[in-house]
Amino acid sequence: MKKSLTVGCVIMASGLSRRFGTNKLLADFCGQPMLCRAFAATAAPSISARIVVTRSEEVQALCRAQGVPVLLHSLPGRNDTVRLGLSVLLEQLPELSGCMFLPGDQPLLRRETVEAMTALFCREQPSPTEWQKETEREIFRLGAVAENDPAPLVGSPVLFGSSFFPELLALPENKGGNVLLKKYPAQVRTVCIADSAELLDADTPEVLQQLEALARQKS
Q1: Which of 88, 107, 84 is closest to 96 using CA atoms?
Q2: Please, is 118 exposed, middle or buried when counting C-beta atoms within 10 Å of its C-beta (0-12, 13-18, 19+)?
Q3: Nearest 5°: phi and psi at 98?
Q4: CA-to-CA separations, 206 to 24, 105, 211, in angstroms, rounded
Q5: How many CB atoms lie under 10 A from the CB of residue 98?
Q6: The domain at 7-218 falls in which architecture?
Q7: Could you read off the pLDDT of 168-187 as tens digits, one per residue?
Q8: Which residues are bridge partners to 48 per DSSP?
Q9: Transmembrane residues, as ranges (predicted)?
Q10: Burial degree of 62 (CB within 10 A; 0-12, 13-18, 19+)
């Protein structure tokens, strides 16, 4: 009998929002804090557990009000956010097969896209042994085909198989999972979507307004 693969998700919410001026994750987006869009995108049956990792007490309060698990910390590095989030998920699910790292500032990212990435990760293989070995050694990142450019735009979220967990737990200071994308290019698979706007992050109030206008057009 094949065992089911389990995927967890770390919602990255520890940034300082220097370019934005205030905590962008709490900025209004279509009538709710922008971070709520990440909550909606990860409220998927294929995500077995999730955790928001933040340095903001206000974000912590929002998560608790929304019933989303959260970890408040005061450590400075991106590597700290990765380590803390993955460690929490592994405590809950020691047999975790994969972990997605998803920024909290991509408000156009859809739940269907998250589902598509996890479905590809959990795809069936001809035999249980091959199935397990293949998935634990793969990295999936989100991408979109650009006009007049054969190379896709690439970005987040990124889903790592379990064989990468030891290195994710010991990343260099202030480095994120991108270190492993560069180290293991042959293991990276790009999941291409039609709408490149899902890859955009809201780094400034002006960009946030543009993304909100796009969201209203789509709805």
Answers
A1: 88
A2: buried
A3: -155, 155
A4: 12, 14, 9
A5: 26
A6: Alpha-Beta Complex (3.90)
A7: 999 999 999 999 999 999 99
A8: none
A9: none
A10: buried
